[in-house]
Amino acid sequence: MAPLIEIQDLKQHFKIKGGFFGRNIQTVKAVDGVSFTINKGETFGLVGESGSGKTTLGRTLLHLYKPTSGKIFFNGEEVNDENYRNYAKKMQIIFQDPYASLNPRMTVEDIIGEALDVHKLYSTKYERREKIINLLKLVGLNAEQAQRYPHEFSGGQRQRIGIARALAVNPEFIVCDEPVSALDVSIQAQIINMLYDMQQDMKLTY
Description:
5 helices; alpha+beta
């Protein structure tokens, strides 16, 4: 059986302008020839010092950055520049900073509902709201909090909102970009345990 995720010689290089008038162009090799596989239901840990390219690799895998070169496969099918939008529902991300990743001008209901809107995952407004409320309950929040804004929540609660947003489209694979590193130590274990329970119940791959 093919692995859920396979990466072959993935590279992500950025062009940086420097010097007077930006005439000197340098290439920063953020990701340079990485290969690995992730099996379905597995938690794959990517370890490296700060600035080594872990976040860039995760975002490139999801095509949030266009890869410089290399190949990405999902369930044996290659993900490329032409078809990567077809995999948007199957692959999601939980960002490291739970505040910066949430639009401060949107309510929690609209933050979570945005993915439902984009992928047309409901038939009526009632069904949309029911799905959002169920997602909030899944991550330990309640219906009354749906109309609040991100600044009204603690860091741990914001990350729960980010997790609910990632789960809204029923993904199979989630990139967890150090999802607890910005949280208080007392909250980290709660989030990790919740992610573990969800993995078991929903057959997720991290």
